[in-house]
Amino acid sequence: MTLDDLRVFVAVCRAGSLSAVARELGCTQSAVSQHVKRLEKETRVSLLERQPRGVVPTAAGRILWDAASDGLAGLDLALRRLGDLVDGESGAVRVTTGGTTVRHFMADAIVDFRHRYPRVSLEFQTETSSRRCFDALLSSNLDLAWITIGEPVRGIEQRPAIDLPWVLAVREGDPLAGRDSVRVADLADLRLVRLPPNSTSGGQLDVAFAGSGLRAGPGTSVADWDTALLLAELGLGHAVVPELPGMREPGAGGAGVDGGTGAGGPLRLVPIPELPPLQVGWAVRRWDCLLYTSRCV
In terms of CB atoms within 10 Å, which end of the chain has fewer, N or C? Predict the structure, then answer.
């Protein structure tokens, strides 16, 4: 039994004629009859009754006709919707990520996506850490998560997208502001503003510090990198942050930053080349299960 068998059978029941369906499909009456015979062989009952003016479904045929009509209608609708998804004509892309991700990583891509796929809904669910993004991805119908790449997580595939070098954000006039770069050892006596060690990026930073022989002293813990920059701008510490897209203006170390968006502000960004870059990127349950999302974003 095939879908074609069922489609032909439904068409015959509606038309009441094998020859009429054959003309509609552009095939022989014998070919139409073969579809019906396969169904009768599978169900082991007679499905059509011949009459002088054509054919009508038997009692068993009516049962199959009703069920097949409803099922094929629902299936055709589902196939049309799937086609719309593939073509970007409908559906939704659901992303979970941190509060500052859209500003730093997705602004241009979102505008481009909206122009290319105006009928597709974009939905964002904000979480406070990569671990919470993983939990949300596993427990809901979310499609993607933008996360800090870390240790493997069961049931999650991670795909790096960008390597972010670490920088020290300092106020204008600070002794380190004019440096082309700083060493990890230069951070030993500073009051650092950074993400907590239990976050993915904070934990990786601690490992890098330990590998360079630095044991970070007391400082200020923040939930996101933009807050770290703000506290550094207020003079409440030196912020160790990854260099986010759009932060640095062209030039050597010590370029200015204004709220993380451009030059002319009171902060200077000084590279810390000894620290390995931070990887960020996408996470999904399975890449091959995405219909069009991984192609579009």
Answer: N
